[in-house]
Structures are given as structure tokens and as C-alpha cells.
Amino acid sequence: MKKYLFLLIVLFLFVILSAYSYVTAVSNNLADSVFRLHVIANSDSEEDQNLKYKVRDSLIDYMNTLTKDVETKDEVIEIAKAHINDFQKIAKNVVEQNGYDYDVNVEIGNFSFPTKTYGDISFPAGFYDALKVEIGKAEGQNWWCVMFPPLCFVDVTSGVVPEESKENLQENLGDEEYDIISENKDDGILSIKFKIIEFFENIGTKLAEN
């Protein structure tokens, strides 16, 4: 009996380690392929939330003009770093033009993100490189999107990811990663894989935050 129990424990540990290795590989490939935007409103008031969206739209428009011919994430990050003061000024100008005197903090780094869906593309929770914008006290609801490849929408719940963006994303990912985050995850096996990644990454982000 002890022998069977030992084998079960060994098998369990093997499955856990294999799943963790798989999650790490897929998550790293996803994180290495996208550059995200994270905007935090001053508060949850309707006025502050509307201001957040105006800041978001201005930053996305500016980023698109800078990176319209860029094909890699590394290039996008370098461009964003070179123009970070411009992002700061644009966000601050939008705030002031709308009659507020909130401070604005803009930084580029690696931050934790929850699971988010953009049209028919879903990204599992995890740590991603991003341009983070904090408005005022930054105590309001967050807004997330993907700046590269461009998957940002005014209304992400009803948006449709452009085929060009999908192609760009697919070029930067392996078939496995792309199938997992795309609408193909409705497939039973892919859906299970997505849930496994989500489970491990949620644990990882909670441990890191604590």
C-alpha cells in the first residue's frame, strides 16, 4: 500500500511540475510578444472615469502615430521609452483641458494584469510589459488594453480584432500560444490549457503582490 501511495505522490508531483513548466513557457512567450497599456482613473466617479477614457484615447492615438510601421515589441518599447515625457505631457494636457489639476504619473515597466478579453482574443493573467498611467490619486477603476500588436478598442466588449493585428500577433507567437488565446480556445483541450495557465498565473501574481 505504501508503494502505491508513493507512486501516486510521485505521479502527482510530476503532473504539477509538467503543468508548471508548460505554463511558464506559454506565459513567457505571450508576455514577450505584447506591450500593454494600463490607465488608472483618479476615482470611480463618472467624471473621473470619462476623463480616464479621454486620456486613454489621446495616448493611443499618439502611440499609433509613432509605431504605425513598427513590427516588433522591442522597437515599440524603445520608442515608448524615448517619448515617455511626451506621453506625460499629453496626458497632463488632456487633464487640464478638461478642467482638472490632477497630477499624472507615467512609467514603463513589468506589471501584473488580470485575465482580459479583447474582442475574440483573451490574455491570461500574468506579468506583462506596459505603459502605466496613473491619474491623480489613482484610486479608480483600471483600464487595460494591448498597444502592440494594436488591440485597443473604445469598447473592448464588442470590438472585433482587426485581421492585420491577429496576423501580427500570430507572427510573434507560436501556434500553440495563439490558439490558446484566440477564439479557438472554445475547443475543450485549449480551454483547459487556458484555465491551467490562468490558475498558475493568478497564484503567481497574488504571491508577488504579497
Structure characterization notes:
This protein has 210 residues and is an alpha+beta fold. Helix content is 55%, strand content 19%. It has helices spanning 2-31, 46-67, 73-82, 84-97, 163-172, 175-181, 188-209; strands at residues 35-40, 104-113, 116-118, 121-123, 126-135, 142-148. Strand 3 and strand 4 form a beta hairpin. It is elongated.
Which structural traits does this protein have?
two-stranded antiparallel sheet; 210 residues; elongated; alpha+beta; 7 helices; four-stranded mixed sheet
What's the quick description here?
The protein has 210 residues and is α+β, with helices and mostly antiparallel strands. The protein has helices spanning 2-31, 46-67, 73-82, 84-97, 163-172, 175-181, 188-209, and strands at 35-40, 104-113, 116-118, 121-123, 126-135, 142-148.
